[in-house]
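Bench notes, afternoon.
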Amino acid sequence: MSVLPHASGRLIVVLSDSTAYEAATTEARRVGPRLRPLVPDRPLEGAMLETGPAPLFVGTPVHEAGGIHPWDAAHEAVRNAAVLESAVPIEYAEPDFLQQFPFQRPGDTGLEAAREPCTVDPMNDHWPPKAVQFGWHLGDEHSGLKAARELVADPGASRLRIGILDTGFDPAHAAAPRYVATSLQRNFVEDDRPDDATDPGVHFPGAQPGHGTATIALLAGNRVKPPLVPGGFDDFLGGAPFAEVVPIRIASSVIHFYTSAMARGLDYAVDVGCHVLSISMGGVPSRAWARAVNRAYERGMTIVAAAGNNIAGFPTTSLVYPARFHRVIAACGATFDKAPYFKRGHRGMMGNFGPVGKMKTAMAAYTPNTPWAELGCRDVISLNGGGTSSATPQIAAAAALWLQHQAPAHTAEPWRRVEAVRHALFGSADARRPKYFGKGLLRARQALDVAPALDLEKTPEDEVSFPWIRMLLKLEAAPAGRLEMYEMEALQLYLSSPRLQQIVGGADPDVDTPSAAESEKLFEALKRHPATSRALRSFLETGRQ
């Protein structure tokens, strides 16, 4: 079984003629009427200076969809820029996929069950705890976020800024953050309201539009108390409630979002000076994402991203992107009893983990059965929040608390701040079950005691590649951009197909080398795979472009 994203009909492209960029800086349409900058609100001069030698553009080919494979459309654009009516040759192109991030209520084995609106969902009895104090994940026996935020306290005017990429939020909910940067909120979904990140709740409930309302509450939610919540809880729901929060709407549903929207959201969070970014979604890799992650790291923004979810093992149990990038902290899941959020034979949603090499920059926080603020229901917080979506804002909140507490870190070179945050979180974690938890379980209060380490080595730039193609096919020389396109498609297919991964024993393309027999079987399977483009199939057969 393989689950690839749906095609949007658009392409994300890199132009190949550097002399054309100067003309494009003052008038974007000079590049071509079908091309527009990936980040339209930033001057192209800034995009070029900060994201590398060439800015990214989004374009719609003249021949839209029409049954052509999205990667074949990308190769056609590189061979003939006229399909994008571009006056400039194209070096690289990739589909602007409609990404998929599996998410369901943990108690369901199919899509979300129908229920009465604005009713409290109880804890999911497939996972612990089945009954316990509301807000259990905040306590000393778990994340330690309550103790950490009480020590840091309210910093007043010197608040750190946290960005959150999601489906937007419900500003009327009782658990909405107290300090939302309303003037900075951004919407990359609806063009007619770019400055409004409110989630309108379209297609509720099956498509999970309210996902962002719940994650932003876990990140920085306001004080809630009875009768809104049970058990006498009277406290802040969020891990970092005194931080300034920038909601960035990149999707109408956590289940589907565009590659370009994620890239735009990442760049926007950097542009508005976010210190930390929480991303409770992900998908197959993109060059646009790698560039945005590298820019964020260089500018000093710590990124925490969800490891991903699977439903009965599909579409994959390994980490998704952008969590899989090494400059990003991957947020994995741990249950109430500190066991992995994964059990073989379970038919519902579970959390992803692995490969081993990436777990060096991963850690875990608590899920499922966390509080889950309900969109459009001001006074309703369900009890069965789940997925690595719930773990991600906990780790992001801890990162913000450490930065707020450790003022010396702010004087460091920007990328060193990111390394210092990671060092504090990883070094203070409850180290256990590295296969599932990476560096260990979050201990936010202990992290505050870790002094800034400002002499750490720089994490190498993230890139997206499938090096097995280069090593195993003895290829003739191919233009760099085209080869990157073949690698990108092959990697996307490999990561979304458990059957392909089984052929090489789940090997990690970044660090492992399959045997000759495994390699032959893998490339034969790739050629026969029903989702492989004609361009990649031909390339695998001939070793030529």
